[in-house]
Amino acid sequence: MKKSFKLILGVLTAAMLTSFIACAEEQPPFKTVEKPEPTTSEFASGADISWITKFEANDVKFYNAQGEERECTALMKEIGMNTVRLRVWVNPADGWCNANDVLVKALRAKQLGMRIMIDFHYSDVWADPGKQYIPVAWENFTLDEMKQAVANHTQEVLQLLKNNQIDVEWVQVGNETTTGMLWPMGNATNSMTNYTELSNAGYDAVKSVYPEAKVIVHVDRGDELSRFTWLFDGLRRNNGKWDVIGMSLYPELNSWEESNKNIIANINTLFDRYGTECMIVEVGMSRTEVATAQAFLADLFRKSIHETNKRCLGILYWEPECYTYETYDKGAFTDDGRPTDALLPFGDYINY
Predict the structure, then answer these.
(1) pTM to 2 decimal places
(2) Do the beta carbons of residue 65 and residue 338 sit within 8 Å?
(3) Using one digit for the tens of pLDDT, what is the confidence trace for 144-178?
(4) N or C end of the chain: smaller count of CB under 10 Å?
(5) Can you give the residue ranges of every domain in the chain?
(6) Residues 6+ apart with CB under 8 A from 288
């Protein structure tokens, strides 16, 4: 769920997705792989709060339920979260979410003892299923040069964090790469091979700095199985590498129960098909629908913990702190800067 894009691009993207999903459904499934032992690590409960330093620069304040002012990262921990997700852009025009800005936020999470996920967009701006813009500095690169740029950027950012004694547990190589990244070169609908090579360059770069970090390949609409099987079947055919399948879920208000049912079924199906765990790295719902959002998230936590045999590693809310300045409407704070009850499941989940 990012910034809106042009209508014509949306129409073309929808057409491409419809086409490749139809093709994917015509192909027989891969043989089920041998299952590894389920993980026993702590369930990740957290949020992407990448906007926080920009908010602070614009004098946005945050308060706990009692009205006491808090730094946002500390407030997330107070709510009960144990994980922070931070996005990275290559050369953003305003500087927010570049390597140095990510370091500032990662240091806060480290000092609070929180777990950290880094989300590489491999773009100067938002990357999602409708747009995967090549960074301006990389625009004229060949495939080999682009792979090297992906590797260098990944290593440089992660090495900066490691040099500051920051432990990174998960790394996304691309954001919502449903049809690849770094378009048009890495558009998976045109060349799954190119996309796989670019993604693998990111994977190998992560492992060169943080060998134990789990690398995530992230797809939107976690309740739609065909989007995942199309991409991951293609990656597997081309020797693609990943450790965890990342998922987004932004359900409609009147169908969240069905969406939750479907994403849990998909987590189990994808584990059977590929032998890798899943993680719901983005969720959200309208901040004005507090009771519905709370019910949706509580149900999602219960199902993820109890109905996946530990195949789901965690749930992260996308930018819950939004209530002013940015116009994003799926935050989870009140107009006076306090967390709403929609976030209660992120602390209560340990009792589910």
Answers:
(1) 0.89
(2) yes
(3) 999 999 999 999 999 999 999 999 999 999 999 99
(4) C
(5) 44-351
(6) 329
